[in-house]
Every structure is written in structure tokens, then in C-alpha cells.
Amino acid sequence: MIFRKNVPLADFNTFGINSTAGEMYIVENKSELFSGEIQNALSKPFFVLGGGSNILLSKDFIPSIIKYNGKGIQFISEDSESRTLQVNAGETWDDVVLFAVDNNLAGIENLSLIPGTAGAAPIQNIGAYGQEVGNAIITVTYYDIPAKCEVTLSNEDCKFGYRDSIFKNQLKGKAIITSITLRLKKIFIPDLRYKQLSEIFLNSNEAPSLKTMRDTIISIRESKLPNPALLGNAGSFFKNPIVSEKQLKFLKSKFETVPSFSSSGLIKIPAAWLIENAGLKAKRIGNVGTYEKQPLVLVNYGGASGEEILKFSELIKSEVFKKLGVSIECEVNIV
Ligand code: EPU
């Protein structure tokens, strides 16, 4: 375990917000969670940090941070169609995707280049280009803080939804995820549901390989989303909202071309479209703005405080509601 005091957090969150942690405990393995120091830290207010890629640090000071850093990827079982991988929570998510692709295993390749750790992936059920991690997860193991023991949940018990899981609801603040298991397929059937992907491969004679798929996803992401190493951001700041038939009709009466898609029987509208059509694409106030190519991503142009970003996000929400009558919700975790 590593213990540090008064830690600047700019390098621990992809927004690059310079808050400070009074105390930081970096836990290297499961047994350390049961040590006196960590048990003591868990009895006071704390925040569990993963890769810091889906959080907004809205306060300048956080008394205590616990970061689970345990690493390791291993195969634990296999059948004719699939192999099961156990991944410790501190692994970088994209290293897991690379490992899967290098071993010719399919099911998470469209989730290439998503920042963050493997342990954080189930919390918001990371998703992109037609795939969600919840479709590959078999189990999630976590340290249960109130019960002081380890618990393993089945996929069903994780209650995965759109950017949602039990870890964002009933288990919020009560769990430190230590590992996940993933079922990956030996046969690769490209998931081309995302329009840009089907367009790219439509005219090609050969089906893409796993490696080609990963490379294509990486180039799509790089063309649309800002690189957090260059421009602070936390990916989509808002979720795509679910609207009623009535709201969609109203929007269609104003904008003929309003895009919408149905997902599990619900109608969703891209938050990016709403923000753009509320006149807020590439809007900037001080050090914060909506990204010029993808306005549901908020960016820190440098030196923005968490409070500044939070205020800006509230303005975007209220302007979208005022102009288009749709409420949009945050996707990132406000700390
Ligand atoms: N659009 C605009 N203006 C823009 C950009 C997009 O109107 O400037 C509209 C277009 O109609 C476009 C639609 O928004 O067709 C959808 O855009 P995009 O395909 O970029 O996807 P998204 O719905 O905005 C979601 C995820 C992303 C994920 C992409 C690709 C959410 C909140 N976000 O974005 O996830 O990478 O799909 O699958 O669901 C993340 O969660 O951090 C994230 C980046």
C-alpha cells in the first residue's frame, strides 16, 4: 500500500482539475483492503478513484481517496465457443481490449481506447459503437465496505442499463471493485450496427479482422473525441435523453430532421444534436466549453476549476430545456 498526503489531483482525473486530496491510499492487492490503515480510512468519509476518466471533481479539496491498483489478467476457463478472462480492477481498460484482440477473442473490440480502468468499466456500463461491457461481463467482485467482506455479483445482479449499474445506485459508496470476469468469443462476428462502421466496411469484399476493427474504432474515436492528454475532458458529459412520443412530435414540428433512435423500446435523441440545436456547439465561457466536433463532451481549455465546469454544465442543461423542452442528465460522476 502506498500512502500519500496533500496530493495534487490534476494527473488523476482526465478533466485535469487541480483539486487536492488530503490523504491518498493506493491499495495494491485484496489483502491490503483488510489492513488496519485501510479499515480506518474506510470508517471516515472517502472517495474511491479509478482511472479518473468519468468524474468531475467539483470541490478544491477531497479529504481522503482510496485507489485500488491491483493488476493482472488471466484466463480462468474455456469452452468450444469462448474463453473466460479474469481481470483485476486496476488494469487499464484499453490494455484489456488489446489483450483480447491479441488473443483473437471478440466481444469488447468496439470498446477500444475508452479511457479508465477495468474496475470502473462496469460502474457506468461503458459502451460505444454498438457494444456495452455489460454484455461481456459474467461477474463483478467487490469489497463490500459495510459488510467488510468480498462479494461476487452475477451479471444479472449488476443490473446493467444504459450507462448504469447497481454500483451507481444501491451500492454507491459501498463497494470497491476488485476484479471482473469477461466471457469473450472465439468466433468474431463484426458488430457493424454503428452507421459509420457499416459505411466503412459496406463496400469491402472481406470482413474486417479483429485487429482492423480495433484500429478502425480507434481512428473514429480519435476523429470525434478530444484526447484527454491534450484537452481535458471526461468523454460524454451528458447521457442521450429518453423522450416521449409527444416530445419527439413537438421537436419534429420545429426541426424536420431531428435524429432519434429506439433502444429497448425507448426513444432516445442524441444529446449532441440537442446541444447543437440549442446553439451551444463550440460555446465557450472562460476556460470551459462544449467540444467543437462533439458538443456533449465538455472540455477544460486549461486551468478550469471543477466548480466552473459544473456551472457551465448547468447552463447547458437549462438552455437545452428552455429552447427545446428536453431535460438532459449528467453521465459523469460529480464528486
Ligand atoms: N450530433 C450532432 N452534432 C454533433 C455531433 C453529433 O447533432 O456535433 C448528432 C448526430 O445526429 C449524430 C448523433 O449526434 O448522429 C450521435 O453522435 P455520435 O455517434 O458521436 O454518438 P453519441 O450518441 O453522441 C454515444 C456515446 C459515446 C460513444 C458514441 C459512439 C453516450 C452518452 N455517448 O455518443 O460514448 O462513443 O455514442 O457509440 O451515449 C462516453 O460515454 O463517454 C462516450 C464518448
Features:
single chain, 335 residues, alpha+beta, Uridine Diphospho-n-acetylenolpyruvylglucosamine Reductase, domain 2, Uridine Diphospho-n-acetylenolpyruvylglucosamine Reductase, domain 3, Uridine Diphospho-n-acetylenolpyruvylglucosamine Reductase, domain 1, 3 domains, five-stranded antiparallel β-sheet, four-stranded mixed β-sheet, 8 helices, 20 strands, 28% strand, binds uridine-diphosphate-2(N-acetylglucosaminyl) butyric acid
What do you see in this structure?
The protein is built from 8 helices and 20 strands. It has helices at 30-33, 36-42, 93-102, 195-202, 210-224, 245-254, 271-277, 306-324; strands at 2-8, 20-27, 47-49, 55-56, 61-68, 73-78, 82-88, 127-128, 131-132, 137-144, 149-154, 175-185, 232-236, 242-243, 261-263, 266-268, 284-285, 288-290, 297-300, 333-334. A 5-stranded antiparallel β-sheet has the order 6-7-12-10-11, with no helix packed on it. Strands 1-2-5-3 form a 4-stranded mixed β-sheet. The protein has a 4-stranded antiparallel β-sheet with strand order 13-19-18-17, with helices on one face. A hairpin with a 6-residue loop joins strand 18 (288-290) and strand 19 (297-300). The radius of gyration is 20 Å and the shape is globular. Bound molecules: uridine-diphosphate-2(N-acetylglucosaminyl) butyric acid. Uridine-diphosphate-2(N-acetylglucosaminyl) butyric acid binds next to strand 13 and helix 7.
Q: Which regions have little confidence, pLDDT < 50, spanning 5+ residues?
A: none
N-end to C-end Cα span: 24 Å
- What's the helix-strand series? EEHHEEEEEHEEEEEHHEEHEEHEEEHE
The percentage helix is 10-25%
Mean pLDDT over all positions: 96
Number of domains: 3
Structural class: alpha+beta
Individual helix count: 8
Which molecules are bound in this entry? uridine-diphosphate-2(N-acetylglucosaminyl) butyric acid
Dominant shape: globular
CATH overall fold name of the largest domain: Uridine Diphospho-n-acetylenolpyruvylglucosamine Reductase, domain 3
